[in-house]
Design a protein that fits this description.
- The protein is of the alpha/beta class and 716 residues long.
- The chain has two domains: 249 residues, no CATH class; 317 residues, TIM Barrel (Alpha-Beta Barrel), CATH 3.20.20.
- 19% of the residues lie in helices and 25% in strands.
- The chain is built from 14 helices and 37 strands.
- An eight-stranded parallel β-barrel has the order 25-26-28-29-30-31-36-37.
- Strand 2 and strand 3 form a beta hairpin.
Length: 716
Amino acid sequence: MRIKSLCLLVLLALSPLTFAAAHAQQGTNAGTVPTFQHTIGSSSYTLVGRDPAQGGTTAIPTVLVPITLSFEAKKTAGKPFAMDAASDVPGILSSPIFTRFAFTPGEKTQYADALLRTTFPRQGGWHTLLDKPEVKPLKITIPIGFGYVLTSQKSGQSLAVVDVQFLQKELFKQLPRQDGKLVIAVTHNTTYYSDGDATECCSWGTHGVDSATGNSFVLSSYLHAAPSVVEDSDIQPLTQQLAEFINDPLHDPLLEGGYRSPGAPGNIVPAWMRLAHVPAGDQGRCGGTHIASSYFLLEPTNTNPKNNIPASKGFLAHTATTTYHLQNVALLQWYTGASQDLGSTFSFPDANTLTEAAQPCPARGHRGGDDEEPAAPLPAVAASGLTSAGNGHKLIGYWSGYGRAGTAFPLREVSPQWDIILVAFATPDKDAPEGTMKFQTPAGLDPTQFKADIAYLKSKGKKVMISLGGGGQHFTLADPNRVPNYVSSVTQIVSEYGFDGIDIDFESPSLSIDPGDTNFQHPTTPSIVNLISALHQLHDHFGPSFMISLVPEGTQIPSGYPSYGGQFGSYLAITYAIRDILSFIDVQDYNTPPLQGLDGEIYQPGTVNYHAAMTELLLHGFNVGGDPKHFFPPLPPSQVAVGFLTPDTTPTIVNQAMDYIITGKAPAGTTYKLRNPHGYPGMIGAMFWTIDDDRRNNYEYSNTVGPQLHNYPAAK
């Protein structure tokens, strides 16, 4: 615990402008902190404070809310585990959020004020300051299904993973309207997921105007002695969300879809590109049209890919007793480009983090007045031919056929390295009775030829399956009356096209465990019970050669280890119930938050450690929800594969992970130790999303991982 003297809490003594006056002069939304509008060209942007041209100081009343989170999914001595931010309050009060710090030579001020003064450097006698806050502690219970706690067995340090929208709603159920005040709500060692979907992880919080109360707020976390998987420290998360609030105070985070919704409130900036220095899979993507990224409210300076706990190079603020880590953030002029009123510095506090304005996202091209895009270029290298086969190891991939007319490549051109081809997707038919699935070939592919291609692949010893569902598709069999429609429509699709079986890809929130359903061996949730019944009916109809595979997200299998309920562990009951007819299961190691292995340590996705630890949960078995009374038994290795995302990994990581899991030979730097030191030679192999992307990128995975799998000795 780092506690600093509160005597450092000194605000600049500069003719304060009361909130009432600022509110009247600036015409802000009633109840929110004072704001002003700044016009650049034909666009106007709302920021916190008063117009710099008016000078003077705006003092913003502040309420600091340390939250105690009580987790029903984790018990200590029979009581819910608590994460309490009360001890973090002294560190926050003594930090540059509330005290003066020399951001520029000869002048000391607070973080938010220095950010605004760097945005408008020509306005000398102008300040926006946070008053010394009222401190109002609150306690919020996190029910099963809305978050969980990971505690390192080695260090004893804990990290909470929580639904940010749920937490915001619960916060303002207890905190009434705070007219004109900024609420800074803080949790301890907590990261967040969005949209009620823990695969949309991780962020450091949210900010804006709470639509239920009208409160201006920042919700974030303080990091003290956090587990080693967390790269940021102390107030860095808070300063990230505070900076984004200063630059976009009217954002409504509870609007469905948040920044991704058309017409979302808040500042609209020109669409900007993610920076080129971020890791594989994230660079070259549009960050959005708002302050911070559209997905997790991350800064452009963030350097972690999608599912990692956000981290970026922090700015170190050295005080007399403590070193604080501050977030380097993009200034308004980074998004809009420099203008007469704005400075030429693009990032704060470190001006060297961003040295030029944002690159605009390229406009979607049009060809001949329609939305067609040119076909994907042919690979520059040839697909490797099979040199051996029949050893029990399989290369599994999704053929998506995504793209407009002319972009999909025929099934028969799939590389011979692929053993099992999963055609994506059959989707819910919204124009038919509920429960009905439909499938149509991608635009540009003739259905008759498509069926012939399936037959051709099968003649070469391949298995071709139809995947049902897919990301973004909501589907549920909660009503038993939907089951006959589901079974009959899937039967028709499989029979018409000659598929070898089905792949179940019902992602969150399509499958969610109901409250009170606590035993995966005897589920009571209707959507799960009815899906199990439907799968058995389909298998009985087609016979023992009919294949069924499951492709759960990380939240739907390995998340069942720290917590069972809601989306966490939602595939466990299905897997257990159909284990005698299951062909294989391949957990998506990319759609996942950080999780815990059997060794009690916390692992981030995208590493050999993570792939080994999460896969061994299924190969070894584990206590569901940490309860030894509910042990999920191990699956045969021949039913277990690892799921990879082609843009989100590298051939080297995949090669090392597969070699470690199958042979037990750990690559250098691996810290997770397999419970079976000799590995699992009978493990089926690796799955990839997608075959299409692998082909576009010169077979970078199938030409390396395929031969690796096919050349292992056959399992005994």
